[in-house]
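Researcher: We're teaching a course module on how sequence relates to structure. For the next exercise, students receive a sequence and then see the predicted structure as tokens, so they can try to spot secondary structure elements on their own. Here is the exercise chain.
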Amino acid sequence: MVMGWCLVAFVLTAYAQQAAVPTTYRLVQNVNYRPDSTDDYIRERCVLDVYYPEQTKDFPTVVWFHGGGITGGEKFIPQELKEKGIAVVAVNYRLSPKVKNPAYIDDAAAAIAWVFQHIGEYGGTADKIFATGHSAGGYLAAMVGLDKSWLRQYGVDADKLAGIIDFSGHAITHMTIRAEQGIKETQPIVDEYAPLFHVRGDAPPLVLVSGDRELELLGRYEESAYFYRMMKIAGHQHVYLYELDGFDHGAMAAPGFHILLHHVNELTKKSVK
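Model: And here is the predicted structure for the students to work with:
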């Protein structure tokens, strides 16, 4: 009987030690998601980083597009998303004025398509991919997720996205696209390059996060609120709107990551710390 208890104690101790082994994470940098191109600027800008948990399978993946008005910015892995049991794919894309619309939207679609095609090589799964980003990045995520034509050209159905999480992105046509046409930033336009133009009830779950309406850029909160309302009217059952009181356009991203992780958890039914 004593030996039996010793055996049980040994097994439990071994299990506890195994369970206590921390998850390790790996970062693979500057993977070209347009590898067949010979264009120097594409080869420079169309790269992504993959941050993922090793020895783990079927984890969710967040595709993160940086902000910068489509005229600047660099890919990065948000600190708030590290060591959370998920993969983060940080994407660079071509910038205006070196390229014009719709080159950067097409880059966003190509990057997401690359993730669908390759995340399984890192242990992830194609049914837990989220398109996300801040400001210009949120706009790109929403455009590619709502207008199915962008991913369709790469053989991917946008509705296979697990969700779209948009941090303070334009719902109207982006101001840089308007600037390329000589339209001032205070003149709102809703055309085929506006996520609002593509509202539909059968889109993936959509999470809209905005800073304080009095501190945000231009009418960014109001755009998000109208986007939310029109998605509801279109019959969308899983659209969410958050306003982060006291946070301006730049500062809202940090608390926004908690909202992102919550929805990744809920939409994949996976425990995310």
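Model: If you want an answer key for the exercise: The chain is about 35% helix and 20% strand. The beta strands are 25-32, 47-53, 61-65, 87-91, 129-134, 163-167, 206-211, 239-244.
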